[in-house]
Amino acid sequence: MEMIKIENLHKSYAKLEVIKGIDLTIKSGEVVCIIGPSGSGKSTVLRCINRLETPTSGRIIVDGKDIMDPSTDINHVRTEAGMVFQQFNLFPHMTVLDNVILGPLKVRKIARNNAESLGLSLLEKVGLADKAKNYPEQLSGGQKQRVAIARALSLKPKVILFDEPTSALDPELVGEVLEVMKKLAAEGMTMVVVTHEMGFARDVADRVIFIDQGVIQEENSPREFFSSPKNPRLRDFLGKVA
Ligand code: ADP
Ligand code: MG
């Protein structure tokens, strides 16, 4: 079953055309990693999927709903497609637990005690149950990102979009975040992951996509993608990052 279907996506910022015709289908349970140089449009694609940006043209279907259709509830689309950002985006004045349960309280309007037990179970899942009462500033970057993942899970999304989730972390903290992501993948979560972590892409992705100059230049199983890249720009890119 198709979780996300993108057809001929174009996106311009004023006169700058950033996405120049992208087609991409992601099946339920699939993990797709997107790699590519800085400025190539990776974040823009993710942000179009949950309507943080409005596509200039094209079609995006998320879980059967056309997100451009005026009758589609955008807030509902955002609950279906959770997002994890490079910079965590936690609220500094709220405890870890309150950060995690904000969505369930505000969007789902569930009772506080139910939200708290949900939040604690999600914190347990990311290995941070003991930090529930702490504030974000008391956590390491890796812990903050794991809280952000718990928060993304709190609305029970159908897919999670990760935008360079480990790029802001000190190298020794990257592994703990990737471990949590690996666990989610193993549980069958549908994931779209923009990343520079080639090891993660190789081990966890079902498919790897190379975006450059606003188009998909190459798309393959991780094995083929890394062992026999065909596009010269991808070969050049892999040569620089590997
Ligand atoms: P990536 O995530 O691959 O680094 P982005 O999708 O963030 O690339 O950006 C692609 C291009 O679009 C870049 O040239 C960037 O400067 C430009 N861009 C991104 N967001 C905006 C915006 N809100 N307004 C204008 N230009 C933008
Ligand atoms: Mg980006």
Structure description:
- Its main location: membrane.
- Residues 4-238 form the ABC transporter domain.
- One of its GO terms (molecular function) is ABC-type amino acid transporter activity.
- With 242 residues, this protein is an alpha/beta fold.
- It has helices at residues 42-49, 74-80, 96-106, 112-125, 141-153, 171-186, 198-204, 222-227, 232-241; strands spanning 2-13, 16-27, 31-35, 57-62, 65-66, 81-84, 159-163, 190-194, 207-212, 215-220.
- The strands form two sheets. It has a six-stranded mixed beta sheet with strand order 6-7-8-3-9-10, with helices on both faces. A four-stranded antiparallel beta sheet has the order 2-1-4-5, with helices on one face.
- Helix 4 (112-125) packs across helix 5 (141-153).
- The chain is globular and about 55 Å long.
